[in-house]
What we know:
seven-stranded antiparallel β-sheet, 553 residues, 8% strand
Amino acid sequence: VLSHNLCTVLNVPHDPVALEEHFRDDDEGPVSNQGYMPYLNKFILEKVQGNFDKVEFNRMCWTLCAKKNLSKSPLLISDEDAFKVWVIFNFLSEDKYPLIIVPEEIEYLLKKITEAMGAGWQQEQFDHYKIALNTSREGLSAWELIDLIGSGQFSKGMDRQTVSMAINEVFNELILDVLKQGYMLKKGHKRKNWMERWFVLKPNIISYYVSEDLKEKKGDIILDGNCCVEALPDKDGKKCLFLIKCLDKTFEISASDKKKKQEWIQAIQSTVSLLRAGSAPPHKEARQKRKELRQKLQAEQEELERQMRELQAANENKQKELETVRKQLEAAAARAAEEEKKRLQTQVELQDRFSLELEREKMVRQKMEEQVAQKSSELEQYLQRVRELEEMYKQLQEALEDEKQARQDEETVRKLQARLLEEETAKRAELEKWHLQQQQTIQMTEAEKQELENQRMMKEQALQVAMEQLKQLELERKEALEQYEEVKKKLETAANNTKSWKDKVAHHEGLIRLIEPGSKNPHLITNWGPAAFTEAELEERQRSWKGKKATST
């Protein structure tokens, strides 16, 4: 997945077969950084052509490393702002691993952000921070820089939106090479109408968009060494006009005021001059100059240290020479004493003979005294150098005192961090209290649920009672049906008896016909035959059932 995403971002064709072949014999567990780097260099990085979106590549690298390294403590900047600070760090850091940003580049970045916020730079505050930093290490890592900016130490009194806008402005300048941007009016080439556009000036191009969100791009003005910019007089009701001449097109633009007009003309002229000279953008050239200056200062520091070592070695050699001279003087003095003793012994005998030799000896002694004086002068110079070394030792002692003071300041900061941890513990206890309240609320909800369950049980019991009543009514209906069958049989018997009597009467009299009474109410017919009750009785029973059902519910 990592290799495929890298190839996608870098516009390199992905070869899964080569990936499988490369790691085919690697069955010893997960691949380490050292194990993955040969494949990354050979099959991905060597194929990069440079035509990829560097911001998207940085965003992918940020996704890989931010979750593991980004501080969990709350920051005054958003994750997007932290990403932009991380990209700026990669631009300003030194060209050696592990990457760090030196105090000079930290000061440059914080100054840029402070100027973008419209605040004043606190040089004294940064000097104290720089002293404390130099006593412990050479610079900051990317995550320490994000913590420094996100802590608000150098942006006190500024809200999150102001800090975010300042970081975005510095990001546009240093990473996206945006030299200047803003709204201006542009005259169309076809319809000759004036439209407001958002212009973005980069080292070799001017792009213009519908608005500052950069979502809808309307066109580009390609800059080269042959381009030029000229101020135009006001015309057609438009003021603050200037003209950009390129090889194939000419663009008329109107700024909002004279100051903006002059700023844009100077910015475009500076960009064209850099293109003619083949120079890098100003911020990249300034970064290179700062880097060269740091290298020069470092070389001078190393040369000074070398000279100090040579001076110390020379002092040691001079001391050895002085010791040798002292021994020679002592030996010469011993020899002179011996010769003096011999001379005294033979003085009377050899006074006349050695008078000339005595004068010669005086001259030799005078020369030796001159040598001793010269050596004394050299000794005085040596003592002067020793005093200078003692003065340097005192300065080192003062530097140690400053370091002790910085450590005391660090202890104060640690106590402050401990107090913040205690506050965080108190907040955590408050959150646990809220959690208990939520559990109590859940228990109350369970009680209401139990009450609803009881009501449901009561309704089910009422339904069972209604079912039992329905069964009772069914039994009563069956009994009524049986009674109806008995009555029907009796009626059939009576009808048979009546028919036989009518036949007999008709046979004997012929003209007599009995008039039988008809039914007062029409009979109801059910699925089992004629009903044993009337329609009025059925309505009465239905009302009774409905009343019992309403009572049970």
